[in-house]
Amino acid sequence: MAKRKSKSESASPLLPFQSGVQLAFLGWNRPVLHSAVDVLLARYSKGKEWDMDQVLVVLPGSMASRRLQVLMAERAANDRLILRPPRFLTLGKLPEELYQAKWPFASELTQGMAWVDVLRSTPAEELQPLLFEVPSSEQLSVWMDLAKLLGNLHRELASDLLDFKDVADQLAGTAEEPRWRILAQLQRRYLDVLHEAGLWDIQSARRFALEHGEVADVKHDVVLVGTVDLNRAQRQFLAAIAPNVQVLIGAPESFGEGFDADGTLRSSFWQGLEIPIAEEQIHVRTTATEAAGELSVQLAKLGQSRGVREITVGVPDPTLVPALQETLAQSQVHLRYGPGVSIFSTPPLKILLAIEDYLDDGNIESFSNLVRIPWIEKWLKIHAKLPSEPSDGATGAEQANADPIPLPETFLNTLEIGRAHV
Q1: Reduced to 3 states, what is the DSSP secondary structure of residue 271?
Q2: Global pTM?
Q3: Rounded to a whole number, what is the distance in angstroms from the first to the last CA of the chain?
Q4: What's the confidence (pLDDT) of residue 373?
Q5: Predicted pLDDT of residue 325
């Protein structure tokens, strides 16, 4: 398998990569996972046995992991091989395989409540430089929003092995330093709260393991497939076990200059790369609806030559996704959004949130928003007993004047009657 030495211009003093990391370039004439199956078969099969029992395969996400498992099983069946499958893991869970945590990890909810506890117990005058207006202790939802903000910032910095104090030190002497010093104090208190509860923040645990040389030696191979976007913490863990690491890259070897020694993208290379796209391949549309319609046309053209799993739709703005999904669904084509659907976007939560808004405000706007939800509207057409057709030859305008829109209370009473039929 091809090896690649790290070059001095791409090396970082924080990332002491070893030459033992092995890179294999899969090309892009075939889907990456299909090529990965070929490489794994060639390396780990012997006779009629395909033994990967002592191998850990790491992929960017769970869907890619499941798909690779299916492809390997199909290949073993077609070639009549005895497959001993490897362990599959997503990239985000890899570090915990490489060190021994001294404390149980705090759940995401526990971390959030720890931040809330720290913020609410901090005197208002200390928080004043961070906030235009310090919430009262009873405003729990506001404190939770602030806790979520700080938690996300904490995780983002920790993924690059930094904490708030590190940022404050880098900003020493600037106008931003005092605010980061306050954030550093809050972060320290947050970690103390977890420690007193006998819990550990997972990001801090990773950094502690790296700084204290607690990354364990591994006896098995670790194979990474398509993991081109590694943060600094993940790269440090891989550097610590470099002789056992293989990285399968979905690109030709001629593009090797576009990757660092651990297979991570070298962004400067790709930013200056000219992509040969012909003018007739570019279709400009001005609205989300038009873009969705054009996508339907292009997918229809690909339908005879490509399967659904072979097509990826890139969307620069996530707000376009619902329009694309709705339009494609009309053609019985289901567009899977990689990050998934937020629980707040699911029908039950949309209905509950709309009901909550109406109960809080009780105005006609919140009432209209509630009854216009498609699922509510569909239910009303079946169960609500409201006049929908002009009677006795009256025109639509006459009927509207004769039958004014019922008040929300009257309408909800109608729903109570209809509920017995659900």
Answers
A1: helix
A2: 0.70
A3: 64
A4: 81
A5: 84
